[in-house]
Structures are given as structure tokens and as C-alpha cells.
Give the backbone structure.
Amino acid sequence: MFFYQIFMVIFIIGIVKGISLWSYFFKVKSMVRELGTGVTEEQVQNFIKLVRKMKMLNFPDLWNTLRAGFTLVNNAENISYENKKELMNALLSKGVNLGNVKIHKSNETTNIK
């Protein structure tokens, strides 16, 4: 009886932990969909916060979604170079392989004479 109770407690903790990890995956997917409609500085800051606090799963769809989000941010001309670099560093620190990436500077900083 005692072992059954311990097993049930561990089982329930595992289910709760699994649900919380998957909820991060769905949050990332929804944020990247929002980035696809138009990227703002506020969205990028929220994306960076989410990446920093999430636990990285061994799940290729998650990695691909994070890379797609970075590509959307990197190609957006209205996002500052600092935010792009901050997002890149957050993703790299979590172990996401971005490949040989070059951060695109926004028009605001490149047109200054």
C-alpha cells in the first residue's frame, strides 16, 4: 500500500511536469505565429523572456520553431540590433544551433551618416 502511494505521487508529479514542459512548446509556437504577422520590439522582448525561463526539450520541432522565430526577428528591419543580438545569445545559451548566422542591422542604424 505504501509503495502504491509513493508511485502515485511520483506519477502525478511526472504528469504535471510533462504538461508544464509542453505548455512552453505551445507558447513558443503561438509567439512565433504572432511574429509572423508583424514583429514589434515588445514581442521580441517577450520572446526573449520566454526563451530564458524555459527548459529546453529534446524535441526537434521546438528547435525548428525557435530558429524560425529568430529568423523572423533577424529579418525584421524595425527591430534593433541589440534585441536581435540578445535573442541570439539567449537561444545559443539554451543550446539552440542557429548555424552560421549573421545579425542583420536595422535601417535605423545603417542609414546614419
Observations:
- The helical segments are 2-37, 41-53, 60-75, 81-93, 107-110.
- The chain has a mean pLDDT of 85.
- The two ends are 77 Å apart (CA to CA).
